[in-house]
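Chapter review: from sequence to fold.
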Amino acid sequence: MPLPHLIRSKTRLAVGIGLVSTLVAAIPVAAYYQSLTLTWSSYGHDAQHSAISAYTAANLNQIKWQKPVDLAPQYSGGDLFIHYGSPLITSANTVIVPVKTGAVGGYRFDAVAGSNGAAKWSINTDYVLPPHNWTPSVSGCLTPRNRCYFPGAGGTVYYRDNPDANGGTFTGQLCFYGLSTYLANAGTYNGSVFINTPITTDRYGSIYFGVHVTGANPANIVNGIAKIRYDGVGSIAPVSANGDATAVKVPTNCAPALSMDGKNLYIAICSNSNFGVGYLSMWNTTTMAFVSKVRLKDAKFGGDANIPSDGTASPTVGPDGDVYFGVLETSIGTNHDRGYLLHFNNNLSITKTPAAFGWDDTASVVPASMIPDYVGPSSYLLCIKYNNYAGVGGDGVNKVAVVDPNQTAVDPISGVTAMKEIKTVTGVTPDAEFRPSKPLAVREWCINTAAIDPTTNSII
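The token string follows.
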């Protein structure tokens, strides 16, 4: 089980939105991402997890509509040990929301009009959660062809081709190892083969996701990364192809990311233990062949970093092709459980400057033009969680930061040469659990990815 502090970090996830900062100057968003569409297509907005929105954010002074995402929340005291999936938004402003329906599982997807919250359709899925500690996120993806995919049981996916229409149900069901194979032994596959990550789509409508297998099955499916093309043809790349028998699964919640040209997929692979060693790996999206990997290391001590088997760090690909991924430190607590955001070139052969926080977070891309007083070499910056946990040696002054991947400064907590802080914002809610012994302690920013709005120059 995770340490109590690390469990505590789950309790504020996806239950609120914080305005980090309002900045100035507009930029042409399309110049940063070739594959940027007008939809919010998946976790982190797109296949690179940039989190950059093409639409202008409305003022946050009014709630226009609201919708439950959990019909049976399981509180532990005042805490919720759960991750909630990302909503999807079509170009016609249909918002598709994953909803947990039961105490320990059961999911449906509800579609509403983004303008007023009016119901459009609601569809149940038979998706079964993989083994987990805190409850993982469940979400689908929206392809450039306006096809919406949803996770199903046994590693299958359902899809709908008319997500903006009122009423109706799924258009069909697909399976990466063959639908007829699945249907012949559905009960066995439902109990042993699980989709364990958010689903990522490329610009052609192919989808990618992690697969966790817990037992024998007739098709001999093993842990891996699955692909299903738009025409329904599927395949799986076994994690074992990475060449290290200690890295045996994709961490639950780790959404695959794609390179800027879509030719390569990045995803973490880790050991079976909840806090074990692991790699960031690269796979060819055409053949799903293993390409390369880099062992994930503690930025201070150089030993193996800890990779939670069900954290929420996912790779982010920057506009220049650099890849970012968050880890926990080698010895839990030596960096106040902040971990590090590790930084690599596009083929993972060069390790670059890390950021001083990485645990349970996916970096968002901030065009440098959003900050008019920025002076530096970078065309983009990164927005990351930047907590300093009071329960493990920190002062509880929890923040969100914008950091520069190409400028350095010595981090005062770890002593590591890390990405330079450009802006930080401290949480606004006093944390009674740690006061008065730590009088400045505030509730943490427990976000997994922030939304970037270059039009109003805001981070949400």
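Two observations follow directly from the output. The chain has a mean pLDDT of 90. The first helix runs from residue 4 to 8.
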